[in-house]
């Protein structure tokens, strides 16, 4: 399955839960996660989408660590079967 397909399914599931899932583009600050997840009740998460078995690049790992130090962990999504669990975790925080 392609990364784009997984990303589309994530956006669709977030919308089904009443949220929004904009793409995060940050000129001049490469390596940020692909998607911001905003769910009802002020629940927020960051999601890096990868094709199955792909791993984040070194710069992405560095950005994820920086965000985690600031209290914003990033979820790595590389299969549609993970979407529900990731969104459940975001909603529980």
SSE topology string: HEEHEH
Q: Kindly name the structural category.
A: alpha+beta
Percent range for β-strand residues: 15-25%
| Low-pLDDT residue intervals, each spanning 5 or more residues | none
How is this structure best described in words?
This protein has 93 residues and is of the alpha+beta class. It is 38% helix and 17% strand. It is built from 3 helices and 3 strands. The chain has a 3-stranded mixed β-sheet with strand order 1-2-3. Strand 1 (35-39) and strand 2 (43-49) form a beta hairpin. It is globular and about 30 Å long. The model has no long low-confidence stretch (mean pLDDT 96).
Task: Provide keyphrases for this structure.
93 residues
Summarize the structure.
The chain has helices at residues 3-16, 58-69, 83-91, and strands at residues 35-39, 43-49, 74-77.
Could you give the topology of this structure?
Blueprint: H1 3-16, E1 35-39, E2 43-49, H2 58-69, E3 74-77, H3 83-91
Parallel strand pairs: 2-3
Antiparallel strand pairs: 1-2
């Amino acid at each position: 399955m392609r990364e784009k397909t997984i990303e589309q399914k994530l956006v669709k599931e977030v919308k089904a839960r009443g949220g929004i899932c904009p793409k995060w583009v940050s000129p001049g600050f490469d390596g940020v996660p692909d998607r911001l997840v905003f769910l009802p009740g002020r629940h927020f998460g960051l999601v890096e989408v990868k094709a199955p078995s792909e791993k984040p690049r070194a710069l992405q790992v560095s950005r994820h660590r920086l965000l985690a130090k600031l209290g914003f962990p990033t979820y790595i999504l590389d299969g549609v079967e993970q979407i529900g669990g990731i969104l459940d975790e975001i909603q529980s925080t």
